[in-house]
Amino acid sequence: MASGKSSLINSLLNVGILARKGDTGTSCTWVIQEFRATLPKQSTPFRAEIEYYSEAELEAVITFLFKEAYASLPSSRAGSEALDDETENRNDSGLTAIKTTQTLFCDKPECVSEEAITELLSEASSETDQNVIQKMIIWSRELVRKYAKQDDDLISVVEHTTTQGLLQKLREYTFNGADEDEFTEPVVSPWPLIKKITFGLDSPMLNDGVVLMDLPGVHDSNSTRRRTLGKALAACTHYLVVAQISRAQDDDTVTKYFTEGHKKKGSGRVIAAITNSDRIDGDMRNGNAEQQKQMEETKEKILSITGELDQIRTKRKTASKQERLEMFEKEEDLHRQLHDAESAHDSSKIMIRNKKTVKSLRRTYLRLTGDQRALPIFCVSNKAYEQYQLGFERSDRPVLTLDDTGIPKLRQHLRHATGEGRFNAARFHYEAQLPSLLSSVEIWCFKTHMKRRKELEDIVLEPREACEKAIEDLFTQIRDNIETEILILIKQKEKHWNHEATELCST
Q: Which of left, alpha, beta for 309 (phi over 0: left; psi -120 to 50: alpha)?
């Protein structure tokens, strides 16, 4: 059963259905899909860049595909009884390898059907028969050249103004039509040769630097898809483990990725998203006393409203036209109250169950990893969140509030968790690069002044010459003042001063 990761990505992006989702038991993520902010050269709201495997990677993929397909052939060395058993119990990976081969080359006579492919495999001398392998490699190269432009470095570009239109164009790249309807003729699809599809769109979360990757499910029966999972996970900074709430506590895949994520990415790098949190069966008896009291009060309110509705239906039979009109308005109001009360009751049960699940998963994570940092767990409801996206009637309000759907909280956590690098870059810029930049500006200023030597010398020397002249003029003025104020006065008073001095000396 699907975990709901594609639906979760659609909810987080909040632009409609972009990550392909389905209700069948098979995986609906056929290739690795990456979701980024608007891509360079993007000219429409939604863009997809399909990247194919390189020559060396292509050979490895086809060789591996042929090896698994060849392994599905019954052994000629076995006895007749063992041969029948082996034929009946062919391994799934070999059968899916044959289907994958048909998906790629169903336009070739040798691969037009599973029977034809089996005959082609029978002609091979071993799982490393280069004659057949090289033939398939040549076919795959031709297929890549058909879809990819050589000047675009093995990349095809698809653009559209709506998500629905973009997915329609991408259908042949991301989905195998042969598995959709057993009565439909298979069509060529290059998805086994696609390394990754990168989506570009305008999204506040993606614009903050968050990059989401939708990966093939680990339980997918197709080994080619499983093989690409390891490399993609190695490139991620965080593990977002997605599982249905009904299976999360018993799912081996969840515990596997708890352990693997902590081991490979470290503390705080594993996040859990538990989907279908709005689904609940039976009556909950696990809440505390206060929660149980609140639920009992809500239950009594539901019974009270139901009783009032029964009374109105009884009175309506004998009521007048005016009374029936008033009863109709009252009945509508009671139905709204009943819906709200039932929603509140269900919401309380859901919150109790969710808290219990969170507590259990955190204990499991601590036991597996020893990480003292609490595991971030978000119980989310993609269905309820989609109702808020599309809108709803007042009488059909979702059981959960928008905040209780868990999507806004998870989106905010992803923005904060993946923002660590941007914060460290800003701090480094402030603490190291900015002082260095200011020092560089200061040095630049010094160098600039040296280049302006002639101009600076003129600025310095011109005042010096002006000072010399000013000082010379000052001394000239002082000398003139001495001659005017002192020497001339002495000359005028000399006779009088001599007479007074003679009289003073005579006495």
A: alpha
Q: Which of 56, 468, 61 is nearest to 227 (CA)?
A: 61
Q: Quick one: angle between helices 114-123 and 130-147, nearest 10?
A: 140
- Taking the mean position of all CA atoms in its chain, how far away is CA 72? 38
Question: How crowded is residue 274: how many other Cβ atoms within 10 Å of its Cβ?
Answer: 27
List pLDDT tens digits, range 418-457. 877 777 777 777 777 777 766 766 555 555 556 667 776 7
Give the whole-angstrom CA distance, residue 29 versus residue 216. Answer: 5
The Cβ-side half-sphere exposure at 266, using a 13 Å CA radius, reads 3
Q: What is the DSSP string of 262-319?
A: HHHH-TT-EEEEEE-TT---S----S-HHHHHHHHHHHHHHHHHHHHHHHHHHHHTT-
Rounded to whole angstroms, the Cα distance separating 14 from 112 reads 41
Q: What are the start-end ranges of the H helices in 114-249?
A: 114-123, 130-147, 163-174, 204-207, 223-235
Contact 53, 227 (CB under 8 A): no
Give this prediction's pTM: 0.73
* Rounded CA separation 93/129 (Å): 19
Q: What is the per-residue pLDDT for 446?
A: 57
Cβ–Cβ < 8 Å for 294, 288: no
Query: Among 26, 419, 441, 399, which Cα is nearest to 238's?
Result: 419
